[in-house]
Amino acid sequence: MTKTADSVRNQFKSQWQKWQHRGENLLGRSFDRHLKIGVTGFSGSGKSTFLTSLIHQLKYSHHPGLGGFLPARDKQLLSVDSTAIPGFALFDYAGGIAALSDTPPRWPNPTSEVSATRLHITFKKGSVWSGLLGDARQLTLDLRDYPGEWLMDMPMLKLSYRDWCLDQQQLLSRAPRADLDPTLLADLHKLDPMQTADTDFLTSLFQRWQTYLRQAKQAGLTLLQPGRALLDTDDNLPMVLPLLSLHDYSPEQLEKANETTLYQQLRQQYHQYLDNLVKPFYRQFFTGIDRQVMLIDVVKALSHGEECFNDMMMAYSRIIDCYQMGNQIWLKQLFTPTVNKILFLASKPDRLLMHQHEALRQLVDAMIKRICPQSVRHRIRIETEIAAAVRSSIDHQDYLTATLQDGRFGELRHPPIPDELPQLSHWQQLAGWTPPVLRPPVNPQLAQGGRLAHIRMDKVLRDLIGDKFS
């Protein structure tokens, strides 16, 4: 009987250990986190600096200034280690810190390729489950970044070449686009879609189109396609050029045109661009993304005037439109979209007085309400915030002091920032104002883990990942 009882007891103990092990594994999978965040935004919005600061704030969360991010305030974070993600170039965090701690300090290099980093965040879990799972838990955080110019290619995936040309025709007919290079636009209007294509002529014309797009970017415009033409110096880049006289022919005539015609040749170039460059990129970058940060330099857009501000609004509207339920059929052919939250972040508010920060946040909120349809809001949590990844100015209530990019130190003032979509009176107040380009603050201790001053990065961390520590 004793042997039988011992045998039963041992079998029960063994089975209990198996159940316990399975339960711990199940709970571990439930409570360990793996979150993938994409960081996007048009060129100049500060993506590289934002990522550098975000990583630094997490690695050195013991510094003051992160009170809005409870895991840092409550000293839950134990360690943060970074590794590469297979298939992606490693984001150059070390290079960003080296630039910011240099003499004189420099801004991190702008994004020139797809890059990413994986953060392994070990933390103490403050819940009733911590006793079962152990004191230390881990959040795996993937951060992905890519050149902002590529962002504008996303809406092209929904358009045929003919539709894209007609869209460009409308855009190019209005100021300020129509005034940038009238000669080029006149030459594009003269092109007969049915004429025989000449490769040398098209190459020359495409180079002029690239120059035009870069001029438009300098003028403050945002909705510029193809995006890679703004950066890429690759001679093999498909020549995506708009034909501006398609209204002379019916869709059927264009579809039946000879393969040697200008229309068919440029149509092939357009689809090569989408198939060989744009689609593979979106498959690689967006697959599995859980949350998105979209950086917006609203201050710069305001300073360029009403036309450029509205152009930026249109650009973001088209990007958001890609997330609408009815438009995800084509998107799902590339990848399964899993985005559950988008944070629209107005960057670089340190160029504004602190009492104007709330007006800027309300303006961003008004912008997103205007361009983000309810069909998106019902499925994806949309949030707005402002943040300076690096604070480069000192607020004196009536004015700011800062060091400009050229090394001069002085006082800065600015017109009132509207807390709603700008009206005529706002544009009159903003006319002639150019936001300064600031130099990062001197911070030689940064490379040794020194504090990196910021504005509201703790709120950004709270909104992006705060729920994963509760």
From TrEMBL:
User: What Pfam families does the annotation carry?
Assistant: DUF463
Its recorded name reads Putative ATPase
Note the InterPro entries from the entry: P-loop_NTPase, YcjX-like
Which species is this record about?
Methylophaga frappieri (strain ATCC BAA-2434 / DSM 25690 / JAM7)
